[in-house]
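Section 3.1: Structural characterization of target chains.
Under the original work plan, the team committed to producing a structural model for every single-chain target entering the pipeline before any wet-lab resources were allocated. The record below documents one such target. The sequence was received from the expression subgroup and is listed exactly as submitted; it comprises 141 residues.
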Amino acid sequence: MVDLDDGGRAAAGCCGSTGPAFNAQVASDLMGAIVSGSLDRIDALLHPQATWWVQGWGMMTRAQFLEAVAGTIRRASVRVMKVQSLTAQDDRVAAEALGSFAFAEGEYCNSYVYLLTMADGLILRGREYMDTQVAARFFGR
């Protein structure tokens, strides 16, 4: 887990706060924060200028992404993210994961690929790919 400073951000100089291994740990911490429902932790892992793009939904600002994740966390009584692979190079991380979320209307399962770009030890840009047909069937979109 990445150490946080007093402001809740990734601590400068901790764990060698640059480089592929650190960036991979930040990505892993993001998945763990989604599962645990820790919005504070998700917030702490995002760069102040972060943006997030989701296939089928489009581009979101940092605030919009946090709001969307908060909605998922509030609605899902169970959240599982199983990381299948994690690859980091330079300032980029690719993570492949299987997600399962228990909502009142049923269980939603999908496969994901997250492409993250890091800056200052935080997630600057996220791109989230999924099976859009699975999402459309479940969410009616």
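Strands lie at 46-54, 58-61, 78-89, 92-103, 106-119, 122-130.
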